[in-house]
Write a structure and sequence with these properties.
Pfam families: ODP (PF19583). By secondary structure, the protein is an alpha+beta fold. It has 6 helices and 16 strands. The protein has helices at 63-74, 92-95, 98-104, 199-209, 213-223, 242-253; strands at 10-12, 17-22, 26-31, 46-51, 54-58, 82-86, 108-112, 132-135, 140-144, 147-153, 163-167, 172-174, 230-232, 239-240, 273-275, 280-282. Strand 1 (10-12) and strand 2 (17-22) form a beta hairpin. Helix 5 (213-223) runs antiparallel to helix 6. It is globular, with a radius of gyration of 20 Å. The N and C termini lie far apart (84 Å).
Length: 290
């Protein structure tokens, strides 16, 4: 089989896996619909990268996804041989299942040094001892089989200690919470090649979760130096093709977000009350003049 990136995506509905790339020695596999879509939990993607006999899971997710991901990835790579559990940051939808991965594999956790001593709170005592690779703020190159995975700084997008992962073989950039779109698991399997109609699904999330336009501009300057065939977020659909990716970079480079949008109106003593029964807000009672 020749090299294949998403242009000819292989849909594997039986095991819920989607091949983003495959050649005879290297594969990138995406799982999009491991969580029941009942509206209670946000859709999330998980990733398996295999190079020869070395495997890594990127952003394995929480306990809601663990069983399905463990069984699904087992059809492509034995969990007992996993080398790394790689986390872009430390949110629950990224690594809340860490205790189970530490129990069922011999893999090391790769995570920002910012979260190195926080991540053990997801596990039982001692599970992470001598099994955490803390990544410095500047990132680095992580050996993966015969190749390397590039750990790129992506701090404050949105997490204080945050990394994206570039695979030079497939030319896929795994971007965590950057490029996220609010979709179903089925919709997340369909790559975006025309960015314009897709922006409404991304805009609200990025305006709230990304910290500032300054951070986005700094990241874009770095990302433009990479040869990217596909940009794959942790929620929603991949962005594929040079034009769509360039359009995305142009869009976020000019996006006002996070603290750019806040002023003193956002920091006022509240007057509304939360009803614990209806889980709704109700206005404060006002005195009625006699």
């Amino acid at each position: 089989m020749g090299n294949r990136t998403v242009g000819a995506l292989s849909h594997r509905s039986i095991d819920m896996a989607l091949e983003l790339y495959r050649d005879k020695n290297h594969a990138c596999i995406m799982f999009t619909d491991l969580i029941e879509e009942d509206g209670q939990a946000v859709q999330a993607n998980q990733f398996l990268i295999v190079d020869d006999d070395t495997g890594a899971i990127i952003d394995p997710g929480g306990n809601l996804a663990f069983n399905e991901l463990f069984m699904g990835m087992s059809k492509h790579f034995p969990p007992s041989k996993l080398s790394y559990i790689i986390a872009s940051h430390a949110d629950p939808d990224i690594i809340a299942s860490l205790d189970r991965w530490m129990s069922t594999t011999q893999a090391s956790l790769v995570i920002s040094r910012v979260w190195e001593r926080f991540a053990p709170h997801f596990t039982k005592v001692g599970k992470t001892e001598n099994r955490v690779i803390g990544v410095p703020d500047g990132g680095g190159h992580l050996p993966l089989g015969r190749h390397e995975l590039v750990l790129l700084p992506a701090h404050f997008m949105h997490s204080e200690g945050n990394f994206h992962f570039y695979d030079p073989v497939s030319r896929i950039l795994f971007t965590g919470d950057l490029g996220v779109s609010m979709t179903s698991g089925a919709e997340a399997r369909i790559p975006v090649t025309d960015l314009g109609p897709h922006i409404p699904r991304m805009e609200g999330f990025h305006r709230r979760y990304m910290v500032s336009n300054k951070i986005l501009r700094l990241w874009v300057r770095m990302a433009r130096q990479l040869d990217i065939a596909m940009l794959v977020p942790q929620h929603g659909a991949p962005i594929m093709g040079k034009k769509a990716i360039n359009d995305f970079l142009d869009w976020i480079e000019n996006l006002m977000c996070g603290i750019d949008l806040f002023d003193d109106r956002a920091y006022q003593i509240p007057t509304t009350h939360i009803d614990p029964v209806t889980r709704q807000l109700r206005p404060a009672l006002r005195a009625v003049n006699a």
